[in-house]
Amino acid sequence: MQVQRVVLNSRPGKNGAPGPENFRLEEMTLTPELKDGEVLVRTLYLSVDPYMRCRMNDDTGADYLTPWQLSECVDGGGVGVVESSRCADRAEGDVVTFFNWPWQTHAVMKGSVLQKVDPQLVDGHLSHLLGAVGITGLTALFGVREKGHVTKGANQTMVVSGAAGACGSIAGQIGRLDGCVRVVGICGTDEKCRALVEDLGFTAAVNYRQEDVPARLRECCPDGIDVYFDNVGGAISDTVISQLNNGGHVILCGQISQYNKDVPYPPPLSEEIQETLQSKNITRERFMVLNYMNKADAALCELSQWVKSGQIKVLETVVNGIENMGDAFCSMMKGGNVGKQIIKISE
Fold first, then answer.
1. Strand boundaries in 38-179, DSSP class E
2. SS3 letters for 158-193?
3. pLDDT for residue 264
4. Where does the chain cross the membrane (predicted)?
């Protein structure tokens, strides 16, 4: 069987933005003779996500992430369908998902690592298994619940950076559903601002490329900021933190503005910001979704209900074809996506 796959062609410079030339499309022959316990899967959808930029370095800077190897197949979140099986509990036709799915059109994998999913969980929108009703949704939900300390009736204001991205767009809606009276998103285009307010029910949105962020935040958050869902780090986060109320909470989810730089994760803060955190008794703890997987099944059911009922709206940017993986990844790193960036590999 002839299949296409994407391998890591080169690494970006330690302080460099990734380019499509860092990836290479290859043809290979797959022998579909399965060993005991193996399945042949056809890939339906693949995900590209900011954390993958760290995997492009020879040292990811995070003990839970392994680097991609040069000339080896790249991997990440994927969903597909079993085409043949020698694994007792994975049958032909099963829809399966995996966090380390190879970027290939077909693949042979151990059936035991693949999670079988009921398509009804997402009303047949299988790409949502990589986003709102998958690891992205869990990241948003556990971030808000475990680190955000949102309390119904407490008149809280939440700010989300990277708010039109996969995680931020869900996190803001969960903040609203869990009881925040104001949810303000920060993003990089007027189109994204409109989507946040008109489609997702954010109270307001700030375009950091065009607007005076400190002034707009003061205007949109007249009672200050209680909860900050941080996806970007850097100067934007410093601005938000400086406007947090006493006893506020920072949900440290991601730092995409820093991922092309050779700095540790999480990147160091300036002395001024560290003093703000201390003097205002603000919590800012590292957050990792993998620490909460014992609660994942119940959380996925809740996310599924919210999406099916329309209480959470899902934004996606879908690109077709495995040959476009590199372009889609680099576009996402520059903010070219609205919502979750998905690559459709097959029907």
1. 38-47, 75-85, 95-102, 106-110, 115-116, 157-161
2. EEEECCCEHHHHHHHHHHHHCCCCEEEEEECCHHHH
3. 65
4. none
Is the pLDDT assigned to residue 41 strictly greater than 70? Answer: yes
Say if residue 25 is exposed, middle or buried (CB neighbours under 10 Å; 0-12, 13-18, 19+). Answer: middle
Lowest mean pLDDT among 81-85, 257-261, 297-301: 257-261
Scored b (16 or more CB within 10 A) or e, 268-302 reads ebeeebeebbeeeebebeebebeebeeebeebbeb
For residues 182-197, give the mean pLDDT. 98
* pLDDT-derived band at 212, boundaries 50, 70, 90: very high
Listing DSSP states for 270-303 in one string gives: PHHHHHHHHHTT-EEEE--GGGGGGGHHHHHHHH
Q: State yes or no: pLDDT of 226 exceeds 90.
A: yes
* Burial track 58-77 (b if 16+ CB lie within 10 A, e otherwise): eebeeeeeeebeeeebbbbb
CA distance 49 to 37: 30
pTM for the model stands at 0.94
Other Cβ atoms closer than 10 A to 10: 14
Greatest alpha-carbon span in the chain: 64
Query: Which of 135, 154, 157, 153 lies closest to 228 in space, CA to CA?
Result: 157
**Upper half-sphere CA count for residue 142 (Cβ side, 13 Å):** 23
Task: List, in sequence order, the alpha helices (H) in the chain.
Answer: 52-55, 135-142, 166-177, 190-194, 213-220, 234-242, 271-279, 296-309, 325-333
Instruction: For each of the domains in the chain, give its residue range(s) and CATH number, in order of start.
Output: 2-131+315-344 (3.90.180.10), 135-290 (3.40.50.720)
Burial of 40 (C-beta count, 10 Å sphere; 0-12/13-18/19+): buried
Q: What is the pLDDT of residues 110-168, one digit of tens each?
A: 999 999 999 999 999 999 999 999 999 999 999 999 999 999 999 999 999 999 999 99
The answer to whether residues 181 and 224 touch, using CB atoms and an 8 Å cutoff, is: no
